[in-house]
Fold this protein.
Amino acid sequence: MAAPAKIRPATAPVVVTANDLRTGRVVWLAEAGWTGDVAGARVFPAADAAAALALGQAAEKARIVVAAYTVEVAAGPVPLKFRERLRAAGPSIDAEPRPALRQAS
């Protein structure tokens, strides 16, 4: 069994992100539920990071989201790390279903 990941204390304000359980899309904890836009995310002071994470974990237990974790942000909020900025920008591929190509006869 792998050791649990080490969590370092937040030094900047944080938001909570996860994936919607039904769609798999990236979501951000907002004042009233979850949103697909990081601009609508609820920002917590660094000192409240553990409480913020607890809210995300409660949503996991309620089977609303999966893989909730905190993300440090700058004003905006704008995630500080590239990985989360990429997640905030949306899918990096076209996720819309495409019609099947017809084979030439």
In short: The CA atoms of residues 13 and 45 lie 4 Å apart. DSSP finds two helices and five strands in the chain. The chain has a mean pLDDT of 86. The longest strand covers residues 65-74.
